[in-house]
What does this fold into?
Amino acid sequence: AQKITQTQPGMFVQEKEAVTLDCTYDTSDQSYGLFWYKQPSSGEMIFLIYQGSYDEQNATEGRYSLNFQKARKSANLVISASQLGDSAMYFCAMREGGVGNQFYFGTGTSLTVIP
Amino acid sequence: DSGVTQTPKHLITATGQRVTLRCSPRSGDLSVYWYQQSLDQGLQFLIQYYNGEERAKGNILERFSAQQFPDLHSELNLSSLELGDSALYFCASSVDPAGEQYFGPGTRLTVT
It folds into this structure.
């Protein structure tokens, strides 16, 4: 089974609108972390937001928020007030494990913001 | 700019050769990670070091090896290169071994 599943290969959103990028994960660990990264066409990977498995509140960072639903094993990224510069690939990732961490990335969602 | 540096930016080499990729983590970060990003495999975690010690191993081939030096920079050695090793190799660093990672710009390796 895939550790991280991103079912939306491509998404379009109108500028200034909100968009939700889906991510589901698979782990039997109690302690894990969930991350979102942005990869613009220039290629660099930019950290956006982090959610720990024990965090009770959903993480927020500026226009980014993580909709964490533990029972459903989902960690969707919500981008509010989309901007043209948000057009990029978005990757969901998970850190699993205690001492010997393992890291898994999804296949990514390509987001295009339309003016 | 994440503060993580990687050299070289691009590398073109032939099959069977050996190359070394270098990474300097952000100031203060003790943990270094290596990833491979290719079109067919996506982003794959290779290996993690924390303060000079190997911390976790992912999908790293036996032909590949890495180390983290006392000054915390890291090198990824790729040997007996094959066409399929062509990829973007990222280094990332973090303050603690489980926290958010900051990625370098990557090294684009092309094996011909």
